[in-house]
């Protein structure tokens, strides 16, 4: 018999959502006996309606705090019967706020966070409300790990469906690549088990990269686990406003090196006009490396790369310091080397793209933009570059709906600020938009990553339907047609519908 060791569910951490109370809220609550339903008149409504991106201030009618499968089934059936729009929310991190909306019912899974590990089969069942930091802790206690996401506060619920990129991506693949099975409640309220081999194999393919919230409410994920290994963490950085050409060369060298790094090295880089460690302005390139395992050969490969960068610096005659730092904790590697702590709820805007064509040109365009725009006083604006390749590339392209498996890295344009009513908010958002646009105009990028979504990539043409298809093509490429067919099969009436959801074919 296979035994799963269950972790104790954690104290409830409240998620957030909001809205106008409806006249019949008493009836709605009574129709879901034993389930906690929060509406405008409840004291914890304000706290419960807040999502991670405080640029959005949605007020849903109800937030239904589901504890288990039955709660989800009852809520879906009631909303179907009463013709109510729903949104699904696990951790509320969706960058465009699509886990909530005005005047909807939010199916809130943040209380469902059980993690059950089976040592014999090296697998774990994980509920969608589990935050990554606790997932890693629980798994590590049994000497396992999972290629999850970089952000500790992100929840498994949405992360997996968007693919899931983290600091083990090259060693272990995307998060969705470790998925073995899913328990899901369909749009009609039917609980099903979805695997690679059963009658729902098309749905399994769709869930692995097709983006959160399209096909049903996922109540449990089963993952194949990796053996945990200590990692060696390294940061290399360079700041100087005088050395634009040199920094362009350093970035180009990094981007060219990405495909040939050992698979056990996953890294990301940041290009910004601010060095948070030194708290000084200036063109900054930071590269952080996660070397999975304590193998000196792997560590020395990063050392060799550092020497290469040092040679470039030497040749350019620069006297600025190329900084090498051994970091102690994963937290340090994840911490933004910038103004703002993005693990708390803050207003922000992100966008994303994959590289296309010439790396020299891309490097120049990136550095030119960041140098020209400088930084804002009250916002952190930067470009992150996430390494792909390694195992991601080795997994067959048709095993999941993640379309960009052959890419070596992923670009994320980011702007984070403190106050939703900051009068410069529009400028920060434009920084993200203009940056992406400039790279696009130069022919240096293509596509986008659904976990870093931006619903404004496509200029409105007046034909909303056509614009939406055009937008979704960025995220799903040639897989969009198949995803639409799957949507038509499992949710033909488009019950799970939101701004960037996949329309049925
Ligand atoms: C601070 C921060 C750091 C991040 N870091 C990373 C990173 O390192 N790597 C990465 O890949 N992404 C990262 N992301 C993006 C993140 O992975 C996605 O936003 C992800 O969708 C968040 O999942 P969630 O459950 O927390 O969010 P939610 O907003 O609750 O869900 C995201 C989407 O999935 C749907 N959904 C949620 N739960 C379910 C469910 N159980 N069943 C069906 N649909 C569901 C929602 O409707 C929504 O559309 C980060 C985001 C933030 C804000």
What does this structure look like?
The protein has 505 residues and is an alpha+beta fold. It folds into three domains: 5-108, 2-Layer Sandwich (Uridine Diphospho-n-acetylenolpyruvylglucosamine Reductase, domain 2); 115-227, 2-Layer Sandwich (Uridine Diphospho-n-acetylenolpyruvylglucosamine Reductase, domain 3); 231-446, Vanillyl-alcohol Oxidase, Chain A, domain 3 (3-Layer(aba) Sandwich). It contains 15 helices and 20 strands. The protein has an eight-stranded antiparallel beta sheet. Helix 8 packs across helix 11. The longest helix has 21 residues, at 296-316. It is globular, with a radius of gyration of 23 Å. The model is unreliable at 8-23 (pLDDT under 50). Bound molecules: flavin-adenine dinucleotide. Flavin-adenine dinucleotide binds next to strand 4, helix 5 and strand 11.
What is the compact description of this entry?
The protein is an alpha+beta fold and about 500 residues long. The protein has helices at about 25-30, 45-50, 70-80, 130-140, 155-160, 170, 200-205, 245-255, 295-315, 330-335, 360-375, 390-395, 425-440, 465-475, 480-490; strands at about 5, 35-40, 60-65, 85-90, 105-110, 115-120, 125, 145, 180-185, 190-195, 215-225, 225, 230-240, 265-275, 280-290, 325, 350-355, 380-385, 410-415, 445. It has an 8-stranded antiparallel β-sheet with strand order 16-13-15-14-18-19-17-20. The protein has a 6-stranded antiparallel β-sheet with strand order 1-6-7-11-9-10.
